[in-house]
Amino acid sequence: MNSVPKPALGSETSWREDFAVGDKDAVVIVDHGSRRQESNLMLNDFVEMFRAKTSYSIVEAAHMELAEPTIKDAFGKCVQQGASRVIVSPYFLSPGRHWKQDIPALAAEASKEHSNIPYIVTAPLGLHELMVDIMNDRIKYCLRHVAGDVDECTVCAGTGKCRLYS
Amino acid sequence: MNSVPKPALGSETSWREDFAVGDKDAVVIVDHGSRRQESNLMLNDFVEMFRAKTSYSIVEAAHMELAEPTIKDAFGKCVQQGASRVIVSPYFLSPGRHWKQDIPALAAEASKEHSNIPYIVTAPLGLHELMVDIMNDRIKYCLRHVAGDVDECTVCAGTGKCRLYS
């Protein structure tokens, strides 16, 4: 991939409501999955943030492998809750093999039991203009911490890791 | 990790300039590194976006493993360009082993040759409020595409992958 996906946030504010989320659109947020339980639990935190900040009425977490719920589990839960369309959203930075092959294959498999429910696999998160803001925000927060102005963020809290080394 | 790192974007707009980027602050943006060259090249695109949107005068790409430039290469390049502090920023979503151990160890190793240059390893990108906006933006763009309103984004361009399946 040589070019940057269109961020075009400004222009998106003028989208017609037709393209807005439908009441029966469900979102399955899929991360890689880990043997580390704390990593799997982190996805639940993201799902909570996503639910709180958006208007989707059905949002489910799923792990691509190594942990449950699987994509199939989550797809089924969405249908049970009345989804008429399932949006599979990979919590991945880059369009690697997992995004190109593994997640589409698992979504296809999951949809077999619900052939009347269309689904889509969305683009990965990286190379979005806002990702620059996130990184810059992390940097500024860390610099504020080492300057003594703020506590460690919750990622570093209690580890003593957020400091200047030399 | 059970809680969400403080996003506090609103309050950050009031940061004193003391915590702003110094002229001699360098940023090393580190991804995992891949055997797939296109994946490594994608980091360069992100570094370009980061340079264009921020005020850091020295920004270098690095790969944790599997590809060059290494963290040591990038750290050295920053010092050559006059960096007085190096900010190592992991292009990772979660605070897993790579963030906790591998990148700090590689940064420490890299800094041995530049003992007068302090460095810091910043927090990972995930669980930031803006990540919700990024995911929602991806979803909306895909839905607009399947509704026939916009072209495929550059991630999907030419693949025919961005469509409703059932």
TrEMBL record, chains A, B:
<dbReference type="GO" id="GO:0046872">
    <property type="term" value="F:metal ion binding"/>
</dbReference>
<dbReference type="Pfam" id="PF01903">
    <property type="entry name" value="CbiX"/>
</dbReference>
<keyword id="KW-0479">Metal-binding</keyword>
<keyword id="KW-0456">Lyase</keyword>
<protein>
    <submittedName>
        <fullName>Sirohydrochlorin ferrochelatase chloroplastic</fullName>
    </submittedName>
</protein>
<dbReference type="InterPro" id="IPR050963">
    <property type="entry name" value="Sirohydro_Cobaltochel/CbiX"/>
</dbReference>
<dbReference type="InterPro" id="IPR002762">
    <property type="entry name" value="CbiX-like"/>
</dbReference>
<dbReference type="GO" id="GO:0016829">
    <property type="term" value="F:lyase activity"/>
</dbReference>
